[in-house]
Design goal:
The chain is mostly helical. The chain contains 7 helices and 3 strands. Helix 5 packs antiparallel against helix 6 and helix 6 packs antiparallel against helix 7.
Length: about 260
């Protein structure tokens, strides 16, 4: 078992990057690395010039007889990249998957997990990607709800503005109607005053005409009785001038 292996240091070269770990760490989880370094099989492992084990797909395939999942769909080159191998070692050390921040890096790490047949790491990455998708979906839904709320608020504000504008138009129309009504009242009052003045003037003229006619009748009677007296003629002329003045046919003048 992996727990019975001695804490022997193992030096690796992965994609040109150097890593140093223990055989116990490499054998901590079932998979390609455990099959290569558990000691159950003694394949010929390639080493670089510095004596580091050189990780290739062929090296892994030679030791997959004890691993149920075969290597048959590898799309990576023979030489593995060392970009995410540190995360692979961290998972082997403590069993916890610390995922990269970006989905692209997570997918690259998932390819490494599948290459090394680390099902636990691959499952953790799947869960992390699904959780990221859920968070993005929830964020999109929240953003859509915020946008809908803002749209409703804008519509409410627009409706309120339209109500205010309608109320303003109603007030302006009422003010215009009130001004027209006031103008009509002033016109009626002016017409009534003119009619009253005309009626008063007509009544005054009728009264004076009646009085003048009475005086004229008296003068005619006196002329018949007394004859053509100069005083009576003078009074007759004054009476005629007064009548013409009252009727507007003659400007007032002193006789």
């Amino acid at each position: 078992m992996a727990a019975s292996q001695p804490a022997e240091l193992v030096h690796l070269s992965v994609g040109g990057s150097a890593f140093t770990t223990t055989r116990t760490t490499l054998c901590a989880q079932p998979g390609t690395l455990a099959a290569m370094f558990s000691g159950e099989a003694q394949p010929t492992l390639l080493k670089d010039a510095e004596g580091r084990f050189f990780m290739t797909a062929e090296q892994a395939a030679l030791n997959m007889h004890s691993v149920q999942r075969p290597i048959h769909s590898l799309c990576s080159p023979c030489c593995r990249e060392g970009k995410h191998f540190g995360r692979v070692l961290n998972f082997l050390r403590d069993g916890a998957a610390v995922l990269p921040a970006s989905d692209e890096d997570c997918k690259e790490l998932q390819a490494e997990a599948e290459f090394y047949n680390l099902t636990g790491l691959a499952a953790a990455i799947d869960e992390g990607l699904e959780a990221a998708d859920r968070r993005r979906l929830e964020a999109a839904q929240a953003a859509a709800q915020c946008a809908a709320a803002e749209q409703r608020q804008l519509e409410a504000e627009r409706a309120a503005a339209e109500r205010v504008a309608a109320e303003r138009r109603r007030l302006e129309a009422a003010r215009d109607a009130a001004e027209r009504g006031a103008a009509d009242r002033r016109q009626l009052e002016a017409q009534r005053e003119a009619a009253m003045r005309s009626a008063v003037s007509h009544s005054f003229m009728s009264s004076w005409k009646s009085k003048l006619q009475s005086v004229a009748n008296d003068l005619v009677y006196l002329q018949r009785v007394l004859g053509p007296e100069p005083r009576l003629q003078l009074h007759s002329l004054r009476l005629k001038a007064l009548e013409l003045e009252l009727t507007g046919e003659l400007a007032p003048k002193k006789l």
